[in-house]
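Session log. Operator J.P. requested a structure for one protein chain; no other inputs attached. Running the standard single-chain path with C-alpha cell output.
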Amino acid sequence: MPELPEMETYRKLLNEQIAGAVITGTEVTRDKSINVSPDEFQQMLVGRTIWYVERRGKHLIFHLDNGKRLELHLMLGGSMFFGSEEEKPDRTIQVTIRFEHGNLYFIGLRLGHLHLLSVKELEGALAKLGPDPFDKRLNAAKFADLFAKKRGTLKASLVDQQVLSGIGNCYADEIVYAASIRPDAKIPTLESGDWERLHTSMHSVLKEAIARGGYMDQPFTAADTLTGGYDELCQVYDRAGESCRRCGSTIEQIEVASRKAFVCPSCQKE
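Structure written below.
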C-alpha cells in the first residue's frame, strides 16, 4: 500500500505535470471508485483547472479552480500513471482524467477511491486523521504524547492513522528497526529515550524514502527513474530470511496485531 513517501513522491510529480493544466475529459470504468455518477463527474471536471496537489497523510488532494477538491486514497494495490494512450500500463484502469498534454490514469482502485468533495466535505472526511510526521509542532515530547493512552503494541499504534497519519506496514518496520526497538514492544514499556530515538528515526527514514522515491516500483511516467528507488534500501521490510545489513543475523517475519512485521532478532532485542 502506498504510504507517506510514495504519496509525497506522487504529489511532487503530479504538480510538475498537471498544476495549472485544464481538464479536457474524463472516463470512469468503475462507478464505485467515485462518489458521484460518471456523468456528473465529467460535468463537474471538464474545463476546470487543477491549481495544485496537496498531501495529507496517505491522501492526495487535487485543488480545483472552482473551489472543489478531488480526494484520492489509493489503498492496497492502487497506483497512478501519467502519459499517452500508447504509454499507459497494461493494467485495469478505473478512472482517467485527460489533459491536452497527456492523461492521468488511476489504476487498481478496487479498494481505493477518488471523491469529488466540497471544502467542508473534505474536512469532514479527513477530520480523524492524526498529525503528519513532519508537522513542525510535533517535537519528540509531543510525539510521545500521541501514544500516552495506548496499551497495545508499538507497530499497531504507528500504523493507526488516527494517532499519526501517513505511516503503514513498511515504514513502521523500518522506523522501529532504525530505533533498535521491536515492533511488538508494548507501548507502556517504552521509556523517554526510546521515544526520542523513534522520533529521530521516523524523520530520517521518511526523508530518505522520499528522496529515493519510496519503495513501490511502478513508474509514474515512461521516463520516471525516481519512483521505487527506496525498495532496495529497505533494511528489514519484506526481507525475511535475508541477512541484516547491520549485524548479519537472519531477518525474521513475525505477526503483530494481525499484521506481518519484519525484525532483526539481534538488533531489535525483546
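Operator note: Helices lie at 4-18, 38-45, 119-125, 140-145, 154-158, 169-178, 192-211.
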